[in-house]
Amino acid sequence: MSALFSQGRLGGLDLDNRIVVSPMCQYSGERGVAQPWHLIHIGNLMMSGAGLVIMEATSVEAAGLGTHGCLGLYTDEQEKALGSLVAQANKLSSARLGIQLTHTGRKAATRTIPERWRGEPLPPEEGAWKPVAPSPIAYDAGWQVPEELTEDGIRNIIQAFADSAVRADRAGFDLVEIHGAHGYLIHSFLSPITNLRTDGWGGSADRRNRFAIEIVRAVRAVWPRSKALGFRMNSTDWTPEGSTLDDAVDLARALETEGLDYVVMSSGNIKPGIAIPPAAPGHQVPFATAIKKGTGLAAMAVGMIAKPEQAEAVVASDEADFVALARPMLDNPRWGLHAAAALGADIRYPPQYIRARPNNWLGFGFVHPDAKPPATTQQLDRPKSVSSWDRPAAPEKPSTAA
């Protein structure tokens, strides 16, 4: 039996398997509002064979948007659009759907990736807004110097995360992941490179961790226990002057006591110019393993996990509980279905695509010569209609009739 395709659990969620689609910014929002592109993009990924799909980094306030095209979840219009998307996406598969909440901090007000041939920071004539940060340190030469947050400003952002979580719950999301990595606002508080404060929000590691802890505490207070709450964490700043893996494990333990369910481990991006090891397949998996060994949290691994056998090995060897993929899913939006075939697992297909399932298509072996036949043939229930795939219903109680 495939470990990758065994059932998993995050918080109060039961997942069909251990494959997760990582959040991927689409730069296609308008005023922070999701557009038809997002439904098509997410809808495709809901039919990828993954057990969990997490929507892109979504800001908790206008100042936290990374670009003009990023999504937000701080207005009624944004909430309504996402609620409609969730309702439509949930008809496509039994995959669970989450959202990542963020504040980009001093990395706000940039051009989108397709536009960055003209430079990354957004100039005033293109509508740049003022970034905020724990300390007034620009990300790089040519970037704006952010405004140092006051006590009230910090408290307002903590509340904004909680408010956005309430909106995410109303919109129907199953999971919230808080973005605490990649040099964004939470990471900027965590790292001694970017947090030079001398008040209760900076200095010692405990004080630098305080912002992240209070955000998780505020979100946990409003986010249902029947759903899942996670945190994308920086594992290391890749420099002795920055945060380390030991710091990350200590923070994860603190967040576990606040009711966090899982951690996904990323690294780097606190500032330009730091020499980092070259990316290689599975290069960040050991960071997830450190969380598994050092805490009771579920650990999600990222970092060039692209082949089914590779993902299977990560889960089967207990290096991580889940694997999260981004670019491989853009490259192949049916990655999970093809991975199941490669590993000999038989999984649910959308009923509209059932003719392409390995045991229903004589040509599958010709197109995918390395695929294994499934060990068993799953008997799929007939859907109520060909336009939807309902989530599995609770089993009926046995009859008490004589």
Automatic annotation (TrEMBL):
Any one Pfam family match given in the protein's UniProt record, by short name: Oxidored_FMN
SUPFAM superfamilies in the record: FMN-linked oxidoreductases
Origin: domain of life: Bacteria
Cofactor: FMN
Region (Disordered): 370-402
Ranges annotated as biased composition (Polar residues): 375-388
Keyword Oxidoreductase: yes
Keyword annotations from UniProtKB, A to Z: Flavoprotein, FMN, NADP, Oxidoreductase
Record-level Gene Ontology MF annotations: FMN binding; NADP binding; NADPH dehydrogenase activity
UniProt domain NADH:flavin oxidoreductase/NADH oxidase N-terminal: residue ranges: 9-338
Gene3D superfamilies: Aldolase class I
UniProt protein name: 2,4-dienoyl-CoA reductase
Organism lineage: Bacteria, Pseudomonadati, Pseudomonadota, Alphaproteobacteria, Hyphomicrobiales
